[in-house]
Write a structure and sequence with these properties.
It is a single chain. With 292 residues, the chain is an alpha+beta fold. It contains 10 helices and 12 strands. The strands form 3 sheets. Strands 1-2-9-4-7 form a 5-stranded antiparallel sheet. Strand 11 and strand 12 form a beta hairpin. The longest helix is centred in the C-terminal third of the chain and has 27 residues.
Length: 292
């Protein structure tokens, strides 16, 4: 069945979802449908692999390299870890790659159709907006994973927006492409479901904490999560970002962080938070387990 992977993500997306051109996906699909790759550095879209009328294991072209000489983002993505290099080569022709600068709205509810985004570099915030315009970040998606609206995988954006939290490199696949890929390699669907399950577990934990934990304990837990239990500084995250992740006011976050800095628990600098006393921060997260 590998020969059936010689398909165009562009055609399936634009045919099935005429409104998709309102956001990033439309920009990807409308700009360049030629077989030649374009320069990423100029902000244009580019194929992860030049397209060929017929793709097979024997005639598959070499894997696309990015500007720093690293293999295609597909080969490094967790959901493709069961695939061989030759099988990765067959998939690269079915995706379009683009750059999303920080602050770019990648997905808009009701305007973007069923599409799968493969995040190669950067990070993306999935968030809801209240009627008053307040943002609540439901999830933060890191590199080498995926997000998007794909009902066949139980992956639903519902009323969520997707925004580039930093400069991102993203590959896009349409529903028809994903269906063919899953039929050919069910392992990919298994890995995706594993990832979705882990995210659901984190969302459930966040919901539990919002009900039973105090604001300080929730903030401490979030810092532990973002710092990988204190193993690395938290960089590029503003106080406003933390507030939006927890659904609280920025002033509350700032006052709490300032207090912890004065107590020697953390160190604050411009868009950087370092954990100085891991044991004490863990104690804050644990001892305030029940909201009073």
């Amino acid at each position: 069945m590998p020969h059936s992977l010689a398909f165009l993500a562009t055609a399936s997306l634009m045919a099935n979802h005429p409104k998709v051109s309102n956001v990033l996906v439309g920009e990807v699909m409308e700009k360049n449908l030629s077989t030649n790759s374009r320069s990423i550095g100029n902000g244009h879209t580019t194929s992860c692999q030049p397209r060929h009328p017929k793709v097979n294991a024997e005639a598959a072209p070499p894997a696309q390299l990015d500007r720093v000489g690293q293999p295609s983002c597909l080969s490094a993505n967790r959901i493709f870890r069961d695939l061989s290099p030759e099988e990765i080569k067959l998939i690269t022709g079915s995706v379009r790659r683009t750059i999303a600068p920080k602050g770019k709205i990648i997905y808009t509810p009701g305007k973007t159709g069923e599409v799968l985004f493969l995040l190669c570099q950067g990070s993306v915030h999935l968030y809801h907006l209240s009627l008053e315009g307040r943002k609540f970040i439901v999830q933060s998606i890191g590199p080498m994973t995926f997000f998007g609206e794909m009902a066949i995988l139980g992956q639903s954006m519902q009323d969520s927006f997707a925004e580039a939290a930093e400069d991102c490199t993203i590959c896009v696949m349409g529903r028809a492409d994903v269906e063919k890929l899953i039929l050919w390699k069910p392992q990919v669907a298994i890995r995706m479901l594993e990832d979705i399950s882990q995210r659901l577990h984190k969302v459930q934990e966040r919901l539990w904490e919002s009900v039973f934990k105090s604001t300080s304990a929730r903030l401490a837990s979030l810092l532990l999560e973002l710092s990988h239990n204190g193993r690395q500084p938290i960089e590029g995250v503003r106080h406003q970002d933390l507030a939006e992740m927890l659904g609280i006011y920025r002033e509350t976050v700032t006052n709490t962080l300032d207090r912890w800095q004065s107590e020697g628990i953390i160190s604050l600098s411009r868009k950087k938070i370092s954990i100085l006393n891991l044991d004490q921060l863990c104690q804050v997260a644990e001892e305030e387990g029940l909201r009073k």
